[in-house]
Amino acid sequence: MGFLKTELALRLYTAIILIPIVLFALKINGDIFLAGMAIISCIALYELIKLWRDSSILSYVMLAITVFGLMAITYIGYGKGGFDRGLTLFLAICATDTCAYIFGRTIGGPKVAPKLSPKKTWAGLVGAMLGAAAVFMWFYPKTLLEAFLLGCVFALLAQTGDFIESALKRRAAVKDSGRILPGHGGILDRIDGLLLAAPAYLLFFQLKKMGVI
Q1: Is 181 in contact with 14 (CB distance < 8 Å)?
Q2: 115-148 pLDDT, tens per residue?
């Protein structure tokens, strides 16, 4: 019974509710997806405004990352082929977060940036890379090296986005950007990894569409 009241259990409950909603919106696409992204964008920007303490470079960098990241996510998931692209992006970030958590908790070891995020380890970063690589290997079966390189880039950008938001939260002296998602914090806390990774994934998709890769 103790587990049912832990933060991890709360995160799982929220994920169980959110995952079908995300998949439904991607599958239906069209106006429902755009409406959902509009709501998410408004909440994320509102949370960012609450974290804004000064006109520092960090604040403007996070604003740019948030705006362009949200635009990229919307573009990826909307229109023909949006479900496949959005599903790949969604699974890649889920695999990144899950494998980082498992590797980090199981192996432990040195921290990546303890002042910004005391729980993130180098072992977790490697796990994140492997998780993302496995997703890309499944959806874009090239070579193991290409899949691993894509996974590395994706995981590094996802973690960079997380660190930038963590730095902004530290300046604002808050733990989470909001409380809308029980166990996860705010919308910005949940999508911070996607905000940098999504534009990179969009670039990959466009290059693949052009036949460059």
Answers
A1: yes
A2: 878 888 999 999 999 999 999 888 876 678 888 8
DSSP code of 117? -
Report helix angle 7-28 to 82-107, nearest 10. 160
**Is 155 within 8 Å of 126 (Cβ atoms)?**
no
Contact status, residue 151 vs residue 133, Cβ threshold 8 Å: yes
Residue with tokens 């070891």: 109
d(CA 194, CA 155): 10
Per-residue confidence band for 67, with pLDDT thresholds at 50, 70 and 90: very high
Tell me the domain boundaries of the chain: 3-209
Neighbours of 187 (CB within 10 A): 22
Its pTM stands at 0.87
Backbone angles phi, psi at 185, to 5 degrees: 100, -130
Residue 111 phi/psi, 5° resolution?
-85, 150
